[in-house]
Amino acid sequence: MSRTRTSLTLGTVAAAALSVASVTASAAPLPLAGSTTVTPAGHAFKATLSGKATLKAGSVTVTCSVSVATGTVPAAPGNTNPAGPVSSPITPPTYSSCTASLPGVTPTVTTSGAWTVSMQNGSPVTATLKVPVGGLVVTTSGLANCTVTAAPTAPANVGGTWANGAPSALTFTNASVPVTVTGGFGCPTSATFSTFNAVYKVTDTTNPAQQITVGP
Question: What burial class does residue 129 get, using C-beta atoms within 10 Å of its C-beta: 0-12 exposed, 13-18 middle, 19+ buried?
Fold first, then answer.
């Protein structure tokens, strides 16, 4: 199922780039990931943008004030992983009420596919938003006719952090995701990634008196 929203944006949600360092044969192995539990098990949640999200592709920067996604914490025992993250399916996020640094442009944002968010307990708690192949496409008309496709050849992982609270917060800071940009004059066709900054407040919609919490 896809969701289409009209907004003034040439950007897209972004994913964190992973750098791989070379190691010697004698280097110690990386430690195993610790245990993670997301509660309440089986509860539905809603992630709502707090403040504004900024997205940048090439020289074009956009600012959006509305973004929403929903999902469900896995039922027990799936809400606990003794050695790694816990993943929850979410709806493709929607974006609207956006302005762009490039004037005279009318874009349409389409999201689709199977999106997930994974939580890994730690200091800080880390979060990974998985964007499916081609899961977000931005097309524009007006002074610039462009198509921006996120995760064009493989799923992309957007790295962020999680903070327990009332409500809890999911934060993305300078996260990046591979993109391809096609089009003519005014389109940032040389851009190969988009940068994303946003904070989402996450509320329990099954029982609003409770909070979605990540722990060991």
Answer: buried
What per-residue confidence (pLDDT) applies to 32? 62
Answer for the pair 145, 183: CB distance below 8 angstroms, yes or no: yes
pLDDT tens-digit series, residues 87-136: 999 999 998 887 777 788 877 778 899 999 999 999 999 999 999 999 98
Identify which has the larger pLDDT, 101 or 67.
67
As a whole number of Å, the CA-based R_g of the chain is 18
Q: How far apart are CA 170 and CA 163, in angstroms?
A: 7
DSSP bridge pairs for 13: none
| Cα 139 to the center of its chain, rounded Å | 19
Beta strands at 168-183 and 193-204: parallel, antiparallel or unpaired = antiparallel
d(CA 190, CA 182): 9
Residue 151: left if φ>0, alpha if ψ -120 to 50, beta else—which one? left
Which burial class, exposed, middle or buried, applies to 121 when counting CB atoms under 10 A from its CB (0-12, 13-18, 19+)?
buried
For 196, phi then psi, to 5°, come to -130, 135
